Amino acid sequence: MAEAVTVRAVGKVFHARHSVVEALDDVTFSVARGEIVALMGANGAGKSTLLDLICGLTTPTSGDVRVFGQAPRDAVLAGRLGAMLQMGGLLPDLTVAETVRLIASFYDRPIDVDEVLRTAGVEDIAGRRIAVCSGGEQQRVKFALALLPGAPLLVLDEPTAGMDWRARSAFWERMRMLTAEGRTLLYSSHYADEVEAVADRVVVLAEGRLVADIGTDEISAAAPTRVVQVDSGPRCTADALRALPGVRSADVDSGRVDLVVDAEHVSELVVHLLSTCGAGNLQVLGPPFFESLDALISQARRTP
């Protein structure tokens, strides 16, 4: 059975009047059916270009892209892919419901419009004109349009951009319901929290090249450091702990010492804290998700 998405050795070059821009260079990865994959990278890394290729809006200069074993454009025409992209706008004079009904009319067998409005969380603004919808509300309308074909694959480019924290939380709650039904999800995001909470895997681009492809639960485990927290005391001062092997930093806050420690020295340090210092209330934590991911990216970029 074909993967939901297969990208093989893909390159994309744009030619301007006086320059050539290599947007993607030899990118290879796949997305299994039912998988949730986050695409990350700085602005200009090539994320939107890659998603445009997967949606059949442009073609690669080199390499190949397949969606359920088909050319992307064929998969879209067959209703197997629904997309929410940054490009393209909404007609300002139509209401939300009129917009969804208009786009639904282009599909042979669209999902019921009322059902889509409820699922996308725009039922309560169905009669509102697009022109007076906020940026976050317009994002939810675009999400509704992506749901119309009932596609098994959803491709979303920064879907929560412009949403406040309540709308973001509600959006991902709806997405969890959809993916629980077996849909495949490929989405780009700059929000580390929603990547950590939602994605099975993270694919990272930097300057058009793939620099990381890793399971979300592996990211913190692969990080080079850990955070060890312990109650401070006469034999457990920050100054004394800074001198121990593998300790990169030690900071005191409200009677607690936070130690940033090389991962390979954590076991040795824990034994020392418990046996020599008589440390109390000891915890070993991974570094913040984004710091772990950033360390992996930096390491990957240094590796030939």
From TrEMBL:
It is a peripheral membrane protein. PANTHER family: ABC TRANSPORTER ATP-BINDING PROTEIN (PTHR42711:SF17). Keywords: Antibiotic resistance, ATP-binding, Nucleotide-binding, Transport. The lineage of its organism: Bacteria, Bacillati, Actinomycetota, Actinomycetes, Propionibacteriales. GO terms for molecular function: ATP binding; ATP hydrolysis activity. It is found in: Cell membrane. SMART domains: AAA. This is Uncharacterized protein. InterPro entries: AAA+_ATPase, ABC_transporter-like_ATP-bd, ABC_transporter-like_CS, ABC_transporter_ATP-binding, P-loop_NTPase. It comes from Tessaracoccus flavus. GO terms for cellular component: plasma membrane. The keyword Transport applies. PROSITE patterns: ABC_TRANSPORTER_1, ABC_TRANSPORTER_2. One of its GO terms (biological process) is response to antibiotic.
